[in-house]
Amino acid sequence: MLSSSSTRVLGPPAKCPHSLLPATCKLPLRRLQPPAAVGFSSKAAAQKRKRQQQRQRKRQGKADDDEDDAELTELSKAQHVITVPDFSPVSQQLRDVFDERFQDPRHTTQERFLWDYWYVKDQYTLHRTQASAYFPEQLHSQLVDALLEYGEKQLGCRAISPVWMSYYIDGCGQDLHCDSFHGPFAYVLSLTPWEGRVFTGGETQILQPQLLGSFWQSFSPGKGLELTDLVTLVEPRFNQLTVFDPRFPHGVRPVAGTRDPQKGRLVLHGWFTEPSPFFDGPLPEEEALQHLNAALFPMFDQLQALPQVTGTISMQLRVSGETGTVTDVTFLADTLVALPAAAADLGLGSGLLDSGTIRGAVQHVIRDSLMAAEFPESEEGDTVITLPLVFE
Ligand SMILES: O=C(O)CCC(=O)C(=O)O
Ligand SMILES: [Fe+2]
């Protein structure tokens, strides 16, 4: 269920280099944020936890099918870039408005003066505007609703920052930067007819994960590396939504080959913000939240005992209306990065230290804790909860 889009678009934080609009109405913040996990898991602590979980599962009549090794296997893979082709039919309508306004360069209308040439030496060169100022209100609301629906259901983010629209012609681009202070996920929705383009460049480029943690472990002096070994290039295909982890250094490859705005790179971009649980179904939100919290507090204690991870992981829980139990937990978005070095400093054995094992241990604690949550029954059917957890 989506409420009016205007209440879910949040103004940029003070330190935002894109700052422009005053902050609009905020939803009450109910972010469930575990304290940064510190310490390490001793074998005894892990065994105790396992015994507790076994008892819990027995009490619930669930089969005890977890093997020791399985408990450390990753339940989802980290995804620092997600692409969603054919995102929404609204993209074509937005593109049509842009084309109509640029159609006749000799015809002067008010809307032609809505653009800001944003130039920060050696960093940002592009033409930008706010989608809310540029598009008719109803069309803008449709765009915001489509983004919010994706954010709520797939990421557990309940708001977005004001949507930017930018076009890139000859000489435009963005140099490497990180902008995670806006929110845990950045997005780019392309309005560029990519196939027939006349320019070069224009891909979103994102540094690859192996450069940021374990570069020297995988480095081989006898093997050369080139651009595509170092960065992930994401082509902004028309109507593709690209969602990425803005903690990764990223930018836009310089565009060259056209000075015509209609033939350049055109994108809508911004951030998904306000990670907090989203409830879809008959359970009243406040009540469901209380029951969720009851399962989360012991989980945070268990997570404290594991090596540190940072990032966001979002889960979908299905709560049975008939029994009030959780029948399914699936992982949706996952940008968790393990910090094995922190665990090594704490003297953990090397076998436990690879990032997959740490991520796996964290995911198992999360899944098992959520499967053990109990909610009120509801005759009106199941409730689906999207739950994001932010590790800082
Ligand atoms: O347009 C893109 O591909 C990336 C945009 C971006 O990183 C930003 O606006 O901060
Ligand atoms: Fe960015």
UniProtKB/TrEMBL annotation:
Residues 46-60 have a biased composition (Basic residues). PROSITE patterns: FE2OG_OXY. Residues 36-71 are annotated as: Disordered. It holds the Pfam family 2OG-FeII_Oxy_3. Coiled coil: none annotated. InterPro entries: Oxoglu/Fe-dep_dioxygenase_dom, Pro_4_hyd_alph_FE2OG_OXY. The lineage of its organism: Eukaryota, Viridiplantae, Chlorophyta, core chlorophytes, Chlorophyceae. Belongs to the iron/ascorbate-dependent oxidoreductase family. Keywords: Iron, Metal-binding, Oxidoreductase. The keyword Iron applies. Residues 158-274 form the Fe2OG dioxygenase domain. It comes from the Eukaryota. The keyword Cell inner membrane does not apply. GO terms for molecular function: metal ion binding; oxidoreductase activity. It comes from Tetradesmus obliquus. This is Fe2OG dioxygenase domain-containing protein.
